[in-house]
Amino acid sequence: MLLYLILLLTIVPFVELVILLQVHHAVSTAFGPGAGLLATLGTVIVTGIIGAALARQQGLSVLKNLQLSLNRGELPGATLADGVLILIGAALLLTPGFLTDLFGFSLLIPVTRMAYRKLLIKWAKQKMARGQMDVRVSGFRETPSPTHSENAHYEPNLSEEEDHRLEE
Predict the structure, then answer these.
(1) Is residue 119 part of a domain?
(2) Per the structure, how many domains does the chain have?
């Protein structure tokens, strides 16, 4: 894992720098040296601004879906996966470069994010099946089944004594 991280933190910036320099050179050759610098820096700034706005909008949408899922008493697995992917996409858009911007935007667009979500969930399930990932859930209450009387309710912190008094 450390090797992958080292490669990621060295090769990706190197490739991004090469691409930025190639774009700068191509625009400078066509329109002059000042245009190359403006085009390169302008692209980095504009993608950052657009990416931040898109990440904010998608993040707020995920928070709304998360609240709705939790209010219904459902586990929000897909929504949490979307949140993780949006966070990664936003971080990639803050990184200067064309490849990271393309990948970051693809994580922020709902249609393409669906494919990444499926891969992320599949990866997490494989990790859990092998015992390499542990997931714990807390804070959910068991909702009473429709067969209980209308006066019955669930109180998670009651002692057995208090529980018997409620049944009477």
Answers:
(1) yes
(2) 1
